[in-house]
Amino acid sequence: MIKSVICDILGIQYPVFQGGMAWIADGRLAAAVSEGGGLGLIAAGGAPADYVREQIKIARSITKKPIGVNIMLMSPYASEIAQVVAEEKVEVVTTGAGNPAKYMDMWKEAGVKVIPVVASVGMAKLMTKLGATALIAEGGESGGHVGELTTMALIPQICDATSLPVIAAGGIVDGRGVAAVFMLGAVGVQMGTRFLVAEECSIHPEYKKKILKASDRATMVTGKRLGHPVRSLKTQFAKDYAKAEYSDMSDDELEALAAGALRIAVQEGDTEKGCFMAGQVAAMVTKEQPAAEIIKEIMEEAEPILRGASSFVG
Q1: Is the pTM of the predicted complex or chain greater than 0.90?
Q2: What is the enclosing helix (H) or strand (E) of 117?
Q3: Does pLDDT of 312 surpass 60?
């Protein structure tokens, strides 16, 4: 069985994190992933603190295993949610879209392990200096908000720049991807798109159907003009937004156009108004399964690949 230092640090069976997908990764999905031996994450997204606390309680009612919360630091509720994480003594907090420095002492005092998402060497060095527990290095192949570097280029550079354990994210969907990033120096993986079709994922059936029918060129990136690029499926909404992005529409109007679009996709499955976030590996997701089965299957596929890697050396 594949086990790494991150398993010992967090008390989990497999070095697998489920991505913090806003309006998708709720308490039920997080609990299912944790019960399956990975680390389930509740996504705060743009939701208020009361919602996050409720989801933590839901997850706690299902599993006694470690869970985490992902905080988007751009959220207007970020400070309140940071406090909830400390009060509820959640085992892990992951962060994105900002610098978590002002919350880190509070989390550490509460026994919360801090694992920021980074997309550059500079941010990795800063988070290392601030005393993070580990880092999630996410390449641009991922769904949702993306950076510029690809996973293949980013992971070894982050691993060289820090002494902390590195979790790889972006473009990982099966055992081959797990084995590849382990060879690059990572000690764990985070997957989002693969868990979109977990049986415990509560997204609209249309969302799941689009993931299962995706082709290799099914995604596109929009939002670069506003400085917050997002990878999503090529729905009518995404195409309309891309057209508007290169028009004379004001930045405020453009921002308003995307407001609530992910939530509409998740809850209503509306391709005209919804943003169906997904990574480039959507085409490799072929079936709906329980979260625990997904984790076990991927780990079992990765193990012989890693064992056999030495066979390439004479």
Answers
A1: yes
A2: strand 113-118
A3: no
- Tell me the C-alpha distance between 172 and 166, whole Å: 14
Q: Which two tokens stand for residue 312?
A: 């390439």
Q: Which of 281, 233, 304 is nearest to 19 (CA)?
A: 281
- Is 80 exceeded by the pLDDT of residue 250? yes
Angstrom distance (rounded) from CA 273 to CA 270: 6
Instruction: With beta carbons less than 8 A apart as the criterion, state whether 134 and 128 touch.
Output: no
C-alpha distances in Å from residue 6, one per residue of 15, 21, 145, 185, 266:
6, 21, 25, 13, 31
Helix, strand, or coil (residue 231): strand
Give pLDDT tens digits for 116-174.
Answer: 999 999 999 999 999 999 999 999 999 988 888 999 999 999 999 999 999 999 999 99
User: CA nearest 220: which of 193, 238, 195, 240?
Assistant: 238
Structure token pair of residue 152: 């293949």
Bridge partners, residue 94, by sequence: 70, 115
The residue type at 143: G
